[in-house]
Amino acid sequence: MKKAKKKVKAAILIIGNEVLSGRTQDLNVSFISNWLNINCGISVAEVRIIPDIEKKIIYNVLELSRKFNYIFTTGGIGPTHDDITALSISKAFKVKYEFNKEAYSILEKYYGKKNFNNGRKKMAKMPKGSSLIYNPSSAAPGFKIKNVLCLPGVPSILKSMIGNLKKYLVKGPVTISDSVNLQTVESYISLELEKLQNEYLKKVDIGSYPFFRLGKVGVSVVLRTSNKIQLKSCLKKLNKIIKNKKIKLFKKS
Amino acid sequence: MKKAKKKVKAAILIIGNEVLSGRTQDLNVSFISNWLNINCGISVAEVRIIPDIEKKIIYNVLELSRKFNYIFTTGGIGPTHDDITALSISKAFKVKYEFNKEAYSILEKYYGKKNFNNGRKKMAKMPKGSSLIYNPSSAAPGFKIKNVLCLPGVPSILKSMIGNLKKYLVKGPVTISDSVNLQTVESYISLELEKLQNEYLKKVDIGSYPFFRLGKVGVSVVLRTSNKIQLKSCLKKLNKIIKNKKIKLFKKS
Description:
The structure is a homodimer. By secondary structure, chain A is of the alpha/beta class. Helices cover 37% and strands 28% of the residues of chain A. Chain A has helices at 17-20, 28-40, 54-67, 85-92, 101-111, 118-122, 155-161, 186-199, 228-244, and strands at 8-15, 42-50, 70-74, 97-99, 125-127, 131-135, 139-145, 148-151, 176-182, 205-213, 216-225. Strand 2 of chain A pairs antiparallel with strand 2 (42-50) of chain B.
């Protein structure tokens, strides 16, 4: 992978009425975001979930592709009438929506000529000039056009394809993080955390997240940065605060 | 609840670095969306997940509050430095960020005067003119200002508060749905589904979702509408297609 010096930022665009209506629980955002960060040093800076409506897809693809280095879309690339991602993106970028020869041949081979019906053929149609994202589990490829990378919505298929994104991405500085789980409530340490955050402004990002575990309340304090030395130094000061305030830790999970 | 004749549409704005980074799996979108539809006839038409950055919160709150009847925000209303939702929304609407007397008194009573520290007091600060969304589980209220309703990020607390939203909402026509789970693949029925969708255009929304269950592939076909008669008639035709194509059903889960 090529390396960028600056931060590389991405958006995820989840396309699907079933996620918006609450029928389907999205699992792709956390998977993609974690994968991008660990493997590519790319941070997800915004996520949108939108319905299967052409003009909404066009509007959001254009806006997000201008704002971020990459967009990853999920959903809408299957064989049925509600799968309109490829057509909509063709319209967004004003390129032809046509059969991709390589995708056609992959799918024809996979299904066999006899079973290669119109629904299946549809999965070979994509914006002219697309590069393929190969699919080792169910053959139908995703595609990349400009800075937009299109993946399926089914989590297990998406997961099987994700490694094939790497060749299209420029690597940014990887975010590293550490966290402590405290047996306390947020308001008991909020003042000290604010001071610590001000001291490490733009160096370490400090987040505080309350949780319940086995009937006890707790707080996760999470430090995130791309700089190991800053992380170590900030963690040291955080541990000093914890000691001074006599806060007990939870075991790491 | 007052009733609207037209569709009532909402956006959900998830505010939180921890969801964007993939550290925390969002569970609020599907819960809120289902609750709004079943109890209020309100459809969620867009979701955005954004970081804890003031200018991003301001931009998205203003844009979404113009586009939709309601916005529901989650996250960023706790006691720590990274909880900036209330301040940011005050800035968005150019109103004072100040103590809400009722919220102050609720929290003072809950914690006791002695333990009502600055972190906890912060949770009583909100945009001037806000109405409270009561919190039966941990006291700190959410708030409503204009068409923006602000809820906490912790799912269990959010769930305990959701009933208290009703008095602020106008009810739309409730979406009803039905579904069949087929032992087939999407491409086997894509042509027939497309024809059926064209027949029921703007009357019934037909979605097709592939899945894996116990090692078998299947397709959920979901019909959604606010019109019972249309739903029944569309389902009848769908069942005819299934019979003609000799597709077996999965048992309903």
